[in-house]
């Protein structure tokens, strides 16, 4: 095509980026790669080819890691960790900063190599992936610098195993490695089998930056290598990928004491109201679903359009789709590149071919010959339960239905097991900011989409996983409180056959939905004092009682919408009422435990209530200064329904320490009282009854922790399970939690010093950060 012809037709001319430098770099490495362990590339071994999905050409051959390779990488990381952490924040910051500078210096090489390996348009790798990866290292260089002053009670976890997917190879690497090494951890990272090349180039950058040996180790291979890392002697697993593999990793790490963060799939809603700027919303949609060929965990893949504008919107959308340019990813004018691999192409084609619902429009565009290309596709008129409205397609396929009212939009948007991101388009800021808190998602974008920055945490709720990457909140995933762990011995109840201490029979019931309820099974347990005297009976709750309690808690969701001020008032009121009966509670605790610490325990419990009340209206979010004309509002939201197995050794204080911060933040709780000493909890019902606590906000069960833990951790309406039980339940809870990927916080057999106020830690566990991006300006 000549320039004159281009001017005549106004067609886009070709604008190819040269691949010469990147191909030369591969040739320089012998086109064969080993791993990067202890600061050295190992010799290449048996493995697999890495191909360019746009052409099918082999780029390099990679090595499949063996168990010995993984062991060597973990050993190198372990050896390096102490010294790396001891270097201190400012010392580490220098290296992160150097890596960021080097990434910037070699940015075009990284961008081209990423595009060759993954198939994403060069425009995206050049302008989004690589700059964001640099930004993560700069940002976290700052975090390392500030760690000692801003996180004085935190220390590194140790060695982190990190497993990443193929959709944003270098960016996901940066999201994982930057915060980990900033906080003093060392890492063993496995890139995805399809896209390992930029990770191997990054290894070279680590060498150039003089990063101490063993701080970053990279092993290549398939899912089996991921399994080896998961099973290895590491302190944490950070995973991004599919929900099914995330679930397996949750099960595999259950009870190991390894910290876990999972960033999983999504089916994110893209909601367009009738007052939206439609042309902008269409451009946003191009970014939402055709960016990276729709292979984006937070892709706006589920379009919800308000009925009145649907026809006009679809026709504009189809016109825009027909203008998209699909072609060589190295062409700077191309909008849609190649899907990562023939396997993924087959998955996408298979899912679309199996669908018989709705009406399909595929972009009327010239498709490249050969290579892994799939046309931009829209399927409209689906119903919410259609498989394509529920399943992650992970390709350039948009599915859609309409809605009438904002309330219906919320219902449809939340009708998914995922909860990663959501987009809202409307010119009405009141409507947008009213919608944002109602959407079950870790990130909400208003009048924009796919906005990311290192300063704003990214991550999901529900089956989209847990943990955040980026921002202050992301650091929690790579640090732990400095504390020496002491083992927790099982607290056994006293035995006895003595006469009742008080002839008047008082059999405590359960506390469900604000009422005292008889245990469903009709069984009770006797509670004896140290001398063997019968102190009373407590109900033995079963699975059905757990179901009733969870139902009551789920039904009390209006609690989450109350103000912090109101929740504080109620917590103060509980504190006052407990204080009025302090002596009675202290005597009860002493009688059950056979110790004399009751008075001290009750006083600490009252203080815990007052502290949680104090925080209720002060544990605020943040406004992140993200690089857009606008803000990202990091809002702290309640986790939802929390099940907690309360401490056996501190029957009142343990229960109050878990309950108070949880309800202060708007959660509803189902508490399993101390198994050995349940009667302080059952006396507490009356305190709750007289303190204006709405029905269902606090539910208390008594009975076997093992049985209650099983029922709570496998219940799909429970969002988090905490365990401070002296029974050995951590592994069982974590394994059962994989069902709906609920958050867990378990003691792994270590003791908690209940006299120490750890309310801040509880507040952190009781909340999730939702980042709401609000661009502004005319
Ligand atoms: P996976 O979840 O299988 O892969 C993610 C990473 O985990 C890869 O490095 C993979 O290795 C590794 N892995 C695979 N199995 C295990 C295991 N048992 N234990 C530990 N690590 C493991 O995603 P896929 O690449 O197979 O893609 C499948 C689907 O997942 C996609 O179609 C898409 O729907 C979804 N997906 C979602 C992503 C997200 O960000 N939400 C990202 C990628 C995929 P290897 O690549 O070598 O198999």
Keywords:
single chain, 778 residues, alpha/beta, six-stranded mixed sheet, 26 helices, 40% helix, 18% strand, globular, binds NADPH dihydro-nicotinamide-adenine-dinucleotide phosphate, Aldehyde_DH_dom, Aldehyde dehydrogenase family protein, Ald_DH_N, Aldehyde_DH
Q: Secondary structure elements and their pairing?
A:
Blueprint: H1 3-9, H2 20-28, E1 36-37, E2 40-41, E3 47-51, E4 58-63, H3 67-86, H4 89-105, H5 107-118, H6 122-150, E5 154-156, E6 159-163, H7 169-182, E7 186-190, H8 197-208, E8 216-218, H9 223-231, E9 236-240, H10 243-253, E10 259-263, E11 269-272, H11 278-289, E12 302-306, H12 307-322, H13 342-354, E13 359-362, E14 377-380, H14 387-390, E15 397-403, H15 406-413, E16 421-425, H16 429-435, E17 443-446, E18 465-466, H17 471-475, E19 479-481, E20 507-508, E21 510-512, E22 515-517, E23 524-528, E24 534-539, H18 543-555, H19 564-580, H20 582-593, H21 598-616, E25 622-624, E26 630-638, E27 641-645, H22 653-664, E28 668-672, H23 679-689, E29 698-701, H24 705-714, E30 720-723, H25 730-736, E31 743-746, H26 759-765, E32 767-775
Parallel strand pairs: 6-7, 6-9, 7-8, 9-10, 11-12, 11-16, 12-15, 14-15, 16-17, 17-32, 20-24, 27-28, 27-30, 28-29, 30-31
Antiparallel strand pairs: 1-2, 3-4, 5-19, 10-18, 13-14, 21-22, 23-24, 25-26, 26-32
Helix pairs in contact: 4-6, 5-6, 6-7, 10-25, 11-12, 18-24, 19-21, 20-21, 21-22, 22-26, 24-25
The structure holds NADPH dihydro-nicotinamide-adenine-dinucleotide phosphate (NDP).
């Amino acid at each position: 095509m000549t320039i004159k012809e281009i001017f005549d037709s106004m067609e886009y001319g070709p604008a190819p980026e040269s691949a010469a430098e990147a191909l030369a770099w591969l040739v320089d490495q012998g086109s064969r790669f080993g791993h990067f362990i202890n600061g050295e590339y190992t010799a290449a071994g048996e493995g697999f080819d890495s191909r360019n999905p746009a052409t099918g050409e082999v780029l390099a051959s990679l090595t499949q890691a063996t168990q010995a390779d993984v062991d060597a990488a973990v050993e190198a990381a372990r050896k390096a960790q102490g010294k790396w952490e001891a270097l201190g924040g400012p010392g580490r910051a220098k290296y992160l900063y150097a890596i960021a500078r080097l990434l910037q210096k070699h940015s075009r090489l990284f961008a081209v190599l990423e595009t060759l390996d993954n198939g994403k348009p060069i425009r995206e790798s050049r302008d989004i992936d690589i700059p964001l990866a640099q930004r993560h290292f700069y940002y976290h260089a700052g975090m390392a610098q500030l760690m000692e002053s801003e996180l004085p009670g935190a220390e590194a976890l140790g060695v982190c195993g990190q497993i990443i997917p193929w959709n944003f190879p270098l960016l996901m690497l940066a999201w994982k490695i930057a915060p980990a090494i900033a906080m003093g951890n060392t890492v063993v990272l496995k890139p995805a089998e399809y896209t390992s090349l930029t990770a191997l180039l990054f290894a070279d950058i680590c060498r150039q930056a003089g990063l101490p040996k063993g701080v970053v180790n990279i092993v290549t291979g398939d899912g089996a290598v991921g399994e080896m890392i998961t099973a290895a002697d590491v302190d944490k697993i950070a995973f991004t990928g599919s929900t099914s593999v995330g679930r397996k990793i949750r099960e595999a790490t259950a009870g190991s004491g390894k910290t876990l963060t999972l960033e999983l799939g999504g089916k994110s809603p893209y909601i367009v109201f009738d007052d939206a700027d439609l042309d902008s919303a269409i451009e946003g949609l191009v970014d939402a679903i055709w960016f990276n060929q729709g292979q984006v965990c937070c892709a706006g893949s589920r379009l919800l359009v308000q009925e009145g504008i649907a026809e006009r919107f679809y026709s504009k959308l189809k016109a825009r789709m027909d203008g998209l340019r699909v072609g060589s990813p190295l062409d700077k004018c191309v909008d849609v590149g190649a899907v990562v691999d023939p396997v993924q192409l087959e998955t996408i084609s298979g899912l679309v071919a199996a669908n018989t619902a709705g009406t399909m429009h595929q972009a009327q565009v010239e498709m490249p010959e050969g290579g892994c290309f799939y046309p931009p596709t829209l399927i409209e008129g689906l119903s919410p339960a259609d498989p394509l409205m529920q399943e992650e397609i992970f390709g350039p396929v948009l599915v859609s239905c309409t809605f009438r009212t904002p309330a219906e939009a919320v219902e449809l948007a939340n009708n998914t097991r995922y909860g990663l991101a959501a987009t809202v388009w409307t010119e009405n800021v009141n409507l947008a900011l009213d919608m944002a808190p109602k959407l079950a998602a870790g990130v909400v974008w208003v009048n924009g989409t796919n906005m990311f920055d290192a300063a704003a945490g990214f991550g999901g709720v529900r089956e989209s996983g847990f943990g955040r990457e980026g921002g202050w909140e992301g650091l929690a995933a790579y640090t732990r409180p400095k504390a020496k762990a002491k083992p927790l011995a099982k607290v056994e109840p006293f035995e006895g056959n003595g006469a009742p201490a008080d002839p008047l029979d008082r059999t405590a019931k359960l506390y469900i939905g604000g009422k005292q309820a008889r245990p469903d099974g009709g069984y009770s347990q006797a509670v004896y004092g140290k001398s063997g005297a019968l102190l009373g009976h407590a109900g033995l709750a079963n699975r059905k009682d757990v179901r009733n309690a969870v139902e009551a808690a789920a039904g009390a969701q209006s609690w989450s919408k109350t103000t912090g001020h109101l929740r504080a008032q109620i917590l103060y009121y509980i504190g006052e009422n407990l204080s009025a009966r302090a002596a009675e509670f202290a005597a009860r605790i002493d009688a059950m435990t056979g110790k004399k610490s009751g008075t001290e325990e009750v006083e600490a419990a009252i203080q815990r209530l007052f502290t949680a009340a104090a925080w209720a209206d002060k544990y605020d979010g943040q406004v992140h200064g993200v690089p857009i004309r606008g803000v990202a509002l990091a809002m702290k939201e309640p986790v939802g329904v929390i099940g907690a197995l309360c401490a056996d050794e501190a029957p009142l204080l343990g229960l109050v320490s878990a309950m108070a911060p949880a309800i202060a933040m708007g959660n509803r709780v189902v508490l399993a009282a101390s198994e050995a000493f349940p009667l302080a909890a059952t006396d507490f019902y009356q305190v709750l009854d007289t303190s204006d606590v709405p029905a269902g906000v606090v539910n208390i069960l008594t009975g076997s922790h093992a049985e209650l833990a099983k029922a709570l951790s496998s219940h799909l309406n429970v969002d988090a399970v905490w365990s401070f039980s002296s029974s050995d339940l951590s592994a069982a809870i974590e394994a059962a939690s994989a069902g709906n990927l609920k958050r867990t916080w378990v003691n792994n057999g270590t003791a908690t010093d209940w006299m120490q106020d750890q309310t801040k830690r509880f507040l952190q566990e009781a909340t999730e950060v939702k980042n709401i991006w609000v661009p502004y300006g005319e």
